[in-house]
Design goal:
By secondary structure, the chain is an alpha/beta fold. 40% of the residues lie in helices and 10% in strands. Strands 2, 3, 4, 7 and 8 form a 5-stranded parallel sheet that branches. The N and C termini lie far apart (101 Å).
C-alpha cells in the first residue's frame, strides 16, 4: 500500500500536538479534578473533597469530577481578588451605633440625671498614643466605656486611634481641630475649628460623633453653640468635675480629687496622654464601685 507523504506529515503533526497538550496538563498539576468558576455559584463553606481537604471552591452538589475546565478559575492573585482587596480598602467606615438620648436632653449637658447611679468619665483626646492605649485597655478589662473628646490635629498624627477607641466600646466626640481658645475666636474661625475635626471623624469613623466640647473652656458660649449646631452638633458636652489631671498630680491625689467630687450623674473631665491618669484609673474605678456608681459613656448617661 502506498502512503501519501502529505498524509504522513499531517498525522505526525497531530500526534505531536496531542503529546504536547498532555505534557502541559501534567506540568500544570492537573489531577483530573475540575473546579467550576467561583463566580458562577453560591459557595458552600466547609465542603470536603474525597481526600478530606476542605475545598470551598466546589459548589453545592458538585463533586471533584466537574467537567468545567480548570482554566475557568482565576488565579489566586488574579483580577478578582485584587479588585476585592481594593474595594475593601476603599469601603466607607461603618459608623458607631449610639443609644437615643432621653427626651428633653438639654443642648449643653454638664451632668446627667442626679437621681441615677451612672457617671461619665470623659477624656480630652491627645498625647502619647501608648499612654492612651494603656488607659483604654485598663477600662476595657473592667468592661467600662469611656468618652473621648478628640482633638483633630491628634487624629492627623494618630489616625489609627479613632478606630481603636471605637473598637474598644468607647465613644468619640469633637474637641476642635487645634485646641485653641475657641471662645475668643471670631465665629467663622470657631466654626472652622469645629468643622475640621468633624471632617476627620467622618472620614475615619463614618460619623462626626454626637458630642462637641469647646476647647479651653468648661462651657460653650452662645456663639460657640451656634457654630457647633451649624456643623451638625445638637449637643455640647460640658462637665461638672475637673480634677485637673493636666497638671500631673500624683495618682493618689488624682484619685482623691475625683472620688471626693463625683456623684450620681457627674461628667468627669480627664485627659489622655498623662501618666498620672493612667496610674490613677484603676483606683478611680474601684472607688466608684465602692460608692455604688457605674461609669458609662456620655450617650448612655443621657439615654
Amino acid at each position: 500500500m502506498t502512503v501519501d507523504r502529505r498524509t504522513v506529515l499531517r498525522t505526525t503533526v497531530k500526534l505531536a500536538a496531542l503529546a504536547s497538550a498532555g505534557g502541559l496538563l501534567t506540568a500544570c498539576g492537573d489531577t483530573g479534578r475540575r473546579r467550576a468558576d467561583p463566580g458562577s455559584f453560591a459557595v458552600r463553606p466547609g465542603q470536603v473533597d474525597p481526600s478530606g481537604t476542605v475545598d470551598p471552591a466546589w459548589p453545592a452538589g458538585e463533586g471533584p469530577a466537574s467537567p468545567t475546565p480548570a482554566a475557568s478559575a482565576p488565579p489566586a492573585d488574579g483580577p478578582a481578588p485584587a479588585a476585592a482587596r481594593a474595594a475593601a480598602a476603599t469601603a466607607p467606615p461603618v459608623p458607631p451605633v449610639l443609644p437615643p438620648l432621653a427626651p428633653g436632653t438639654p443642648v449643653e449637658v454638664a451632668y446627667g440625671p442626679r437621681g441615677g447611679r451612672n457617671v461619665a468619665l470623659t477624656f480630652h483626646g491627645s498625647g502619647d498614643p501608648a499612654l492612651a492605649t494603656a488607659l483604654l485597655e485598663t477600662a476595657e478589662k473592667r468592661g467600662v466605656g469611656l468618652t473621648v473628646m478628640v482633638v483633630g490635629s491628634w487624629l492627623d498624627q494618630q489616625p489609627q486611634m479613632a478606630r481603636r477607641i471605637l473598637d474598644g466600646g468607647h465613644e468619640l466626640g469633637n474637641h476642635t481641630q487645634n485646641h485653641q481658645n475657641i471662645s475668643a475666636l471670631p465665629p467663622d474661625r470657631a466654626r472652622e475649628e469645629i468643622a475640621q475635626c468633624a471632617e476627620r471623624l467622618q472620614r475615619l469613623t463614618g460619623s462626626i460623633g454626637r458630642w462637641f466640647r469647646p476647647s479651653a473652656a468648661q462651657y460653650a458660649t452662645p456663639m460657640v453653640r451656634e457654630q457647633a449646631r451649624a456643623v451638625g452638633y445638637e449637643h455640647v458636652l460640658a462637665f461638672d468635675v475637673d480634677p485637673r489631671d493636666y497638671a500631673d498630680p500624683t495618682a493618689a491625689e488624682l484619685q482623691r480629687r475625683v472620688l471626693g467630687s463625683v456623684r450620681g450623674g457627674s461628667v468627669v473631665a480627664l485627659h489622655l496622654g498623662h501618666r498620672c491618669t493612667v496610674d490613677a484609673l484603676p483606683g478611680i474605678l474601684d472607688g466608684l464601685t465602692k460608692a455604688g456608681l457605674t461609669p458609662v459613656t456620655a450617650s448612655r448617661l443621657c439615654a
